[in-house]
Each structure stands twice: as C-alpha cells, then as structure tokens.
Amino acid sequence: MTQQNGSNLHTVTAADPPFLFHCGEGYERHRLPVGTTVIYPNEPLEPIVDRRAAIIHAIDNPEGTEPLNAHLKPGMKVTIAFDDVSLPLPRMVAPDIRQTIMEVVLERLDKAGVTDIELVCAICLHRRCTPAELRHFVGSAIFNRFWPDRLYNHDAEDPDALSHLGKTEEDEDVELNRRAVESDLVIYVNINLATMDGGHKSVPVGLATYKSVRHHHNAKTMLHESSYMDPERSDFHRSCDRMGALVKEQMKIFTIETSLNGDTFHNLLGFLQKREHNWSMLDRLNYHGSRIGLRLLPGPLRRKAYSALPAPYGLTGVHAGDTDAVHPKTLVNAYRQQLVSVPNDYDIAIVGLPSIGPYNVDSTLNPILIHCLALGYFFNFFKNRPFIRKGGVMIVVHPFENSFNLLHHPSYFDFFEHVIPQTRDPHELGKRFEKKYAESEWYRHLYRHSYAYHGVHPFYMWYWAAHGAAHLGKVIAVNPKSKLVTDRLGYDAAPSMKHAIGMAHDYAGKDARVCYFHCPPILICDVP
In which band, very low, low, confident or very high, does the pLDDT at 6 lie, cut at 50, 70 and 90? Predict the structure, then answer.
C-alpha cells in the first residue's frame, strides 16, 4: 500500500481491494482508478478515562471566570440549556455526555440551595425532541425530576416566551428564549462534534428565533463563506460572535464545552472506520452480512436497523467558563482529531453519503438534505481553502430517492415540489419565497405542536450548499434511483462509478487529479 504525505493519504494501486463507500442506509464497495488519492480520517484519539473527574476539574478551574460554585447562591434563577438531537451523530452510547455534565452541575446547584432550575433543549428552528430523546440526553433520574414543566424544548414561535435584546452594530436582531434572558445564570452544555459547533453558535443560535438567525442563515452570507468549518475565516461565525457580544452584555453565561473522538461506529460496524487493507475476515463477514440484511429490509425497518447501534464516542476534552475563553481550547481538540494535511486541491472528488445527518435523525435523508450533506457539509470539510478546485467535479454515491418524512419535513416536501422547479438561485429563492414559508401559520403550528422542522428550514439547507454549488463546475450522481431528484437538484447522472469517473474526466481533463474523500468519520482537509 503506497502512502503519501503521512498515513492519511493513500495512492491507489492496481493491487488495492475495492474501497468502501457509504450509500444512504447501507454501503457498497467500488474500485478506483490507479493514481487516485484516498484521504482517510485520523484514527480515534485516546479518550479521557474518567469523564466525571474531567468535568469536575473543568467547572472548578474554568477559563476566564470564577469557578461555578462562586456563581451560585440560594434564591437565584438558573437555566441549563443543551444541544439537541442533531449532536452527536450517531447518538452516543448511554450515558450521553450531557447527562454526566448535568448530574455534576445539578449536584452543585442543589448543594448551593438553588431551587429555581429549568432545563431547555436548544432546538432553535429544528424539530422538537421527543420525550424519549430528551430522556436519552439527560438520563432517567433527571428526566423524571424535571419533565415536563421544567424540562422542555425551546419554542422559537411562542411570543410570550421570547425576549428581544437589541441589535448588533451590523443591525442584526438578537431575540432569545425569555427564560434564559431573565435567568441569573445560564449554563450551556455543548457537544462539539464538528468545528462549526459551539462558541457563540450555542446561546445566540440555539435559543434564538427566525428574527435572529435570518441575519446569518442567508444566501448573501453563505455564498461569500470561506467555510463554516473554519471559524476564523467564517462570515457566519463573525455574525454569531457579534450577537454573542451583545448577549454577554445582558446575560451571565457559564459555558461547558466538550469534544469527542472519531470512534463513530459500534463494534459490529467497526469495518466502517477501518482502512480497507486492515479488514479482518470478521470485518468482511460483517460487511457482507449487514449489507445484505439491510437491503432485504423494507424502508422503515431498514432505517431503524441502520440507526439502531449507538456510537462509542470517547471524550477528548472538556472546558468550562467564559465562552470566548473556552471555545478556542475546544477547537484545538476538535482539530487534533479531525484535521488532515492535504498538500493540494483536486479536480475531481468522490464522496459516499450516509443517511446520517444533523436534520434527519429517526427520519429520511430527503433530496434537499442530500444536497445539503454533499455540497453543504462534505464540500465544507476544509480549512483554509477547498480541497476541490474552482470549477471542479464532485461525484456523489447515494441512492437519491424521492422520499420525504412528512412528520419531520412537511415544508421540505413543498419546497422541493413547488419552489425548486421555479429556481435554484439562492438569492431569488430568498427574495421570492422565504418570507412566505417562514411566516406560514400552518408550518408554525407543526413546528410548535408536532415534530416538524420550522417552515423556513429547507431554505437554510439550500443556502448551506450555496458556496459548494457556486464553486463546483459539475456534480455527478452514481446510479441514482430517481432521475427527477437529480434533475431537480441540477446534478448529472451516471449508471456506474466507472461511467461517473469517465464523465468527470471528460469535463475536467484526462490528467485531472482525483481524490476519494473517505468520510465518515469526520475529517477536515487542511489545504495550504
């Protein structure tokens, strides 16, 4: 096996086995042309053995502020806010790190005589988390103590539960959860799975409303975005930071941020994060057995089986205190796990998309989410500059089914059926259609009282992918099931990987450089 520039880059030879690709709710293997560069993620970092001790040390030795105990006194009002079901992916083996943190924090609050405590899941405009999901985050003891009156989802459409803090110097509205605003102390419990998470994306976004997030979740910001996985260069994060500065003037926040290693898949699926030449006989048997088993199951059962096994993530870091002091230390740990040095960009990049995304937990990866995962997330997994050259080609392995979950994604279905056929231009989408979807009383009702994403959410997914769509010259889907889907997304279609690579070379040139971005587990290409 030929390696280049360290152990994460492999140059394909004729002797190599087929390479594994995630493909929706399953996976498959493809041979790649000789000379293709395979970009592998780093091996999982060794986890912290005693998570509880690490948490205690962090809150007793915080960054930029006094220890947690010094902030507590009897009679005060405390709100504990925490990340929602979009983190981590897949879900963690119990106990979830949020549970362990909250157990430690609640012990301190109880000892200090604090009784006015509420727990708020920071969903912003995501779907509400179910009671079962909340129980998984916080554990049965905390759930039974606080649910339902003092443990609940943030509601971004309840006018009586919101508070407008003012505007930033860039005229950006900051509107947040009233309970949090009126608290003497907000403790935010974060999981930092990707470098776009955490920092001032926690309180000013997670507890915000459409009135606030429209200022950075828009076509103008995203089309000029460097990469929201590269916060130092990110217009999106600059907007969040401006909002965070205003929030800090009016609210007292004690942040607890965590970072996880790359141990993404259960032991039975361990082959999914091994390099192909390291597969054992058992890995090969598990690959073939699970792949055949998943293919034989009907759609809903296949989805349940695919997402049934939780991930054994390990904690690699926990820091607490002032948000601006904490977050840089969290990013160091995230980059330590995810950053892979890549010496140059490529003309053609091949990706295999799993049906694991932040916005389809227990649901379908619908066509809009496929577009977002490919051109929004996978394209943006870079630091400094894209790993695909301007005008290059992305080849995408995924079933591309025309399938929607109408419980979770009703506005997505309407967006796909009635908006995208009229225009794919993100600016035009925003001007002509966004307000109607954002202010629809029906979508508001489903967001507040069912388990639907906010009506505006599909627009955000389209904006997320705007930079990738503008940067790439062509996107090719490998053997898609629905031509309607690829046509509507603006993708070309190829019947096989071989045909897709041939089409890409026809477009990019016979000598075009090709890479296979071997993700997940998450990796971020550091391109100088």
Answer: low
List where CATH 3.40.50.11440 sits in the chain.
51-260
Question: Would you say the pTM of this structure is higher than 0.90?
Answer: yes
Q: What is the pLDDT of residues 28-61, one digit of tens each?
A: 999 999 999 999 999 999 999 999 999 999 999 9
pLDDT at 4: 42
pLDDT at position 2: 39
pLDDT band at 335 (very low <50, low <70, confident <90, very high): very high
At 303, the pLDDT band (50, 70, 90 cuts) reads confident
- Helices and strands, counts by H and E, the chain: 20, 21
| Other residues' Cβ atoms within 10 Å of the Cβ of residue 418 | 10
H/E element holding 253? strand 253-260
* Phi, psi (degrees; rounded to nearest 5) at 497: -60, -40
Q: Which amino acid is at 471?
A: H
Q: Scan for tokens 């217009």, then name that residue.
A: 235
- What is the CATH code of the structural domain delimited by 2-35+342-526? 3.90.226.30
Reported as half-sphere exposure (CB side, CA atoms, 13 A), residue 388 has a value of 30
51-60 and 97-111 are packed helices; what angle lies between their axes, rounded to 10 degrees? 50
d(CA 260, CA 385): 24
CB 334 within 8 A of CB 259: yes
Q: Which two tokens stand for residue 368?
A: 């809009």
Residues of the chain with CATH 3.90.226.30: 2-35+342-526
Query: How many C-alpha atoms does 152 have within 13 Å on its Cβ side?
Result: 14
The pair of structure tokens assigned to 130 is: 């179910």
Kindly report the CATH number that applies to the domain delimited by 51-260: 3.40.50.11440
What sign for the dihedral angle of Cα 133, 137, 139, 142? negative
60 residue type, one letter: D
